[in-house]
Design goal:
Elements: H1 14-37, H2 39-46, H3 50-59, H4 63-67, H5 71-78, H6 80-97, H7 104-132, H8 138-146, H9 148-165, H10 171-190, H11 198-202, H12 206-229, H13 235-257, H14 271-286, H15 288-300, H16 306-334, H17 337-355, H18 368-392, H19 398-442, H20 446-454, H21 463-506
Length: 521
């Protein structure tokens, strides 16, 4: 990735490269975010059941993992133009066609094909930036790349909700049909042409790439369907876990015996690289307080629509992100990536701690400070962690490192999200049970209490009807408070992840001098 940089005379139109890189990164993040938020509306539009909608979501994301790890190798061998240009136009054509599909099976196949193409975009962005920009601009490209995460979280919710309520759900797909071809055109005119690296192509480790991609895809499917199918009580989920584990062992054996291994595990043996990967996983769990817990609470407990939630975050998202991005770059340049990581995890811990004071009366205003702290923390932490990885990376093994970065970006993110979803579901069930015990054991005159609850609506009814209505109201209150307690438990998990991240940073060694940091820290 950093091994061979072109001379200044070979670089052409770097401003076009920067714009294309940013658009590709934002396109991927927006697509995933809007699809997940708008899934309920998509189910209604396509006439899908809950299970069919779940599989649609899986097919729209899992195939990314199949191709993403080997994109760095493909770009090194064939060049950015050959790898990126044609897929952008194919992706646009599929995005235009999907809203007109009637068959569920065809719908799944088209989403899978679209996901494979989407899996090319993000891994190729940093490769494109590092190969076509001066080293002094790497930090700017990297910071902008990192900014796609909070932008998608803040604006993605608003975009998904506003599309379905105004111009139509079709634009969840059609927005990409305008953006993707622009990326291809910018790259075609902005990126220098390169010859095919026939020596690397001749030594290709096709078996390793295929094993790794299939292993991760099967694991992703198991994780994505695990919460719905109740994990190890499902034969399908267990089979996928066993199969992916077996293929992982085969992959590691293959890489140990191959003459020219594509992604040998030894690339992870560097202390800072391994700890940086752990820090990024802690970041993914800690960031769930704003990307998962806050919006899901507002939807499930306060019953807000996505566009209502987005009305808060959207107007301030751009200004906040610009300030956070500039601040993150300045901190990394001045105090170094290690102290920047500590500052980021401190913001995570503080925002999660604020979330533990959650009550059923909370609405959008109570989450304002949490969103602000989370946005700053996401930009600062992820930027510093990626810099720690790249500063210790061996340029000769950058392709192998890129493969494991995609493992972290896709699989670890899915592990964090699905585990948190399962945790919230199980804690809600536990709290609902415990609250129910207190209700039945603590009210000696439960019958009269239920009657009083039911008659509070002001309508005349018999004592039996009032009691029945009271049971329904009491069940709603218990479920609401059980959800609140479950989300508080989720915020404590995010807080714990931030503390683990701080401890991980304390074990890191100083980053060596690198163009991304100006000086060793």
């Amino acid at each position: 990735m950093l091994a061979k940089l072109p001379s200044q005379s070979d670089r052409s139109r770097p401003i076009l490269v920067v714009i294309a890189v940013l658009m590709a990164a934002f396109l991927t993040a927006f697509d995933v975010r809007t699809a997940s938020i708008g899934l309920t509306d998509l189910r209604g539009a396509f006439g899908l059941s809950f299970d069919q909608g779940s599989w649609l979501s899986t097919f729209a994301t899992a195939p990314q993992v199949l191709v993403a790890p080997c994109v760095a190798w493909l770009v090194t061998v064939f060049g950015v133009k050959r790898v990126m240009t044609v897929p952008t136009f194919v992706y646009a054509a599929i995005s235009i066609t999907i809203p007109f599909v009637q068959s569920f099976e065809v719908l799944l196949l088209m989403h899978a094909a679209r996901a494979v193409l989407l899996g090319i975009f993000v891994p190729a962005t940093l490769m494109t930036a590092f190969r076509n920009l001066d080293s002094e601009y790497w930090i700017v490209a990297l910071a902008s790349y990192v900014a796609r995460i909070p932008i998608a979280q803040n604006l993605g919710v608003y975009t998904a909700g506003s599309y379905t309520q105004t111009i139509g759900w079709h634009w969840l797909y059609w927005q990409d049909a305008f953006i993707a071809p622009m990326i291809g055109i910018l790259l075609w005119f902005g990126v220098r042409s390169v010859e095919i690296n026939r020596d690397l192509l001749r030594r290709a480790d096709w078996g390793g790439m295929a094993l790794f991609g299939v292993t991760l895809t099967m694991l992703y499917v198991a994780l994505d369907q695990g919460n719905r199918l109740d994990w190890f009580r499902s034969g399908f989920v267990v089979s996928m876990f066993i199969a992916s584990g077996f293929l992982a062992l085969v992959f590691l054996s293959h890489e140990s015996l191959a003459k020219d291994p594509w992604a040998h595990l030894s690339v992870m043996f560097s202390r800072n690289i391994a700890l940086s990967f752990l820090a990024i996983f802690a970041f993914m769990v800690a960031s769930l307080s704003s990307s998962f817990l806050a919006p899901n609470f507002l939807i499930s407990v306060t019953h807000l629509r996505p566009e209502q939630i987005g009305n808060f975050s959207a107007p301030y998202a751009i200004l906040l992100l610009v300030c956070a991005t500039v601040g993150a770059v300045m901190l990394v340049r001045t105090i170094g990536p290690r102290l920047s990581l500590i500052a980021g995890f401190t913001c995570f811990a503080l925002s999660s701690w604020l979330g533990t004071s959650l009550t059923s009366l909370w609405a959008i205003p109570e989450f304002e400070m949490i969103v602000v702290l989370q946005t700053v923390a996401e930009e600062l932490t992820f930027l510093a962690a990626v810099i720690m990885i790249l500063s210790r990376a061996d340029p000769a093994r950058a392709i192998a490192l890129s493969a494991y970065i995609q493992l972290l970006r896709l699989i670890c993110a899915e592990i964090a999200t699905t585990t948190m979803a399962t945790w919230i579901r199980q804690r809600e069930q536990l709290h609902s049970y415990l609250l129910g015990l207190h209700v039945t054991n603590g009210a000696s005159d439960l019958s009269s209490t239920l009657t009083a609850l039911g008659s509070g609506s002001g309508t005349s009814a018999s004592q039996l009807d009032s009691a029945r209505r009271g049971v329904g109201l009491l069940a709603t209150i218990v479920q609401r408070e059980a959800n609140v307690l479950a989300y508080i438990d989720g915020f404590w998990i995010a807080f714990s992840a931030a503390i683990v991240g701080m401890c991980t940073v304390a074990l890191m060694a100083r980053a060596p001098p690198h163009p991304l940091t100006q000086r060793g820290m």
